[in-house]
Predict the structure.
Amino acid sequence: MLEIKNVSKTYGQGTAKVVALSNVSFRVDEGDFIAIMGPSGSGKSTLLNVIGGLDYLSSGEVVLDGKRIDNLDENDFVDIRRNKIAYVFQQYHLLPSLTALENVMLPLTFCGLGKGEEKGLEILKGVGLGGRTEHKPSQLSGGEQQRVAIARALVNSPSLILADEPTGNMDQETGKEILGLFQQLNVDGRSIIMVTHDPDIAQHAKEIIVLQDGQIIDRINQKGGKQ
Amino acid sequence: MKLYQIVLKDITRRKKRMLYASLGVVIGVATIIAVLTIALAGETDIYGQLEKYGANLVVMPAISDIDVGLGGLSLGTLAVGENYISENELPQIRQIADGMIREALNIEDEGDIATIAPRLYMNTEIKGTSVIIVGVDPQQEWQLKTWWRIRDGEYLERADQALVGAMAADLLELNVGDKIALNGREVTITGILEETGSNEDYQVFLHIKTVQEAFDKEGLVSSIDVRALCSACPTSDIAGSINGNIPGVRAVAVKQIAETEMGMMEKVSKFLLALAGITLAVGCFGVVNTMLTSVHERIRDIGIMRAVGASRNQIIRIFLYEAIIIGVVGGLLGYVVGTLLAYIVGPLIFGGVAVTYVPQYFLPALALATFIAVIATVYPAFRASKIKIADSFRSL
């Protein structure tokens, strides 16, 4: 479903030139759960941004369902964000003025599907927040906010979820719960690419891609991942 | 959930910012509404005067003022000419007025048409207070002063009677039946007028013959009021004809005075509206500035919305919806503030003119404010739509 072919990304020019990614290639199939692991500055978040159309690559190709998507501009990427790829961020990125349910319904609003309340409620129940639907982000804990963000990512039924350090702001116990949720989504048939710097968290994925200085230095198949 | 609901919820979180953004629009719209409301009150007042006195023209002695000076120093003005008009001119004035009205309206009846009311003004003292005495032809005066109402007693009929203005009666404590001494003569107050809001309230009216005899001014009058049959009658032409045919007098049609006043008012209103327009333009820049700040403050929110599927057009629409809300709030407050301003300032400018709120200005005020707010938001909204998602998250 997703192919990353010889992707490179550089910032700056001349002596200020920084190579963030260098000839990165890998493939994501339906049902994959890949953890991209590496130390800070290894290029893992840049890779996720390039895949998700949040940033442009310098060379290479990103192909989704047989079509190149790396050469689309941000506005042309709107349909892909609405239907195929969803994001979960480390900082949750919820709108503070909206309730949990309204945040979940936000993608539906932008798709023009104004009435998505039932679907939003169902998904919030699915992530264990059936009783917190009318709470604003400021009234929710970090773990609960991330659940809302995951519910928001699921509401349009995307085939691929990109998660950037989704447990980075949580304690160990809450992080485990969120990882369990990702594993359940994967079991339900969604492909997941998760960025993390923590080997313990990466172990929950089916495959680990290790990045260093913008290059893949190792690939570890974990046969289902740590439960 | 609809797009506008997202905007409404966000605005309730940032009420102060929104009010600040609408302040520029409020000031601009308030100024325009105040100017228009005051101008309308002034125009209404002039039209009212025209309705009341429109058919009138006033004939006065042709006195001219000349500047008296020594070298470059001005020592004041000197009135040159007769202070009175001879009563002998009355038949000719009637002839001119009636003739022109007959011609204009195709009237064949040979009887009197215009009301010709001569007046003689004198200053005297009653109970030790200086008072203007007005000698009038009671019958003609009554026909002319259609707005006069008698508060107490009866209207003036005979040479030994007097009619007193409301304020003069109150200030001098004069009542019906009281006697006034006038250069050795004695007249009895037969009636007191209701308040008219003009200087007539401070005057005492007597038969013109009585005043002429008492002040040794037989055969002379100070001015002559002529009331044509209708507002559409050619009063300006009558005035022109009187000026051309009778030497020593100056006739002015009230309509001409009102038109001059109206012209002045229009010029002042246009100038004030231009100032208000500048205020609105400054307010518009205020909205641009506030909205640009708002874009900067909400860069993260814009990034989030783009990341979950908002298109550039939807981001622009979100800001334009905000602009509409700012415009509606600004227009509403602007209308209220402008009307209040008109109530306070209007009477000070036009000397007691009654200002009333104008409901017809409400919707145009909203429309103007919304238009300005939307125009001012186009550029900030466009900037917001151009924000890159990765940049918005990096900026945190």
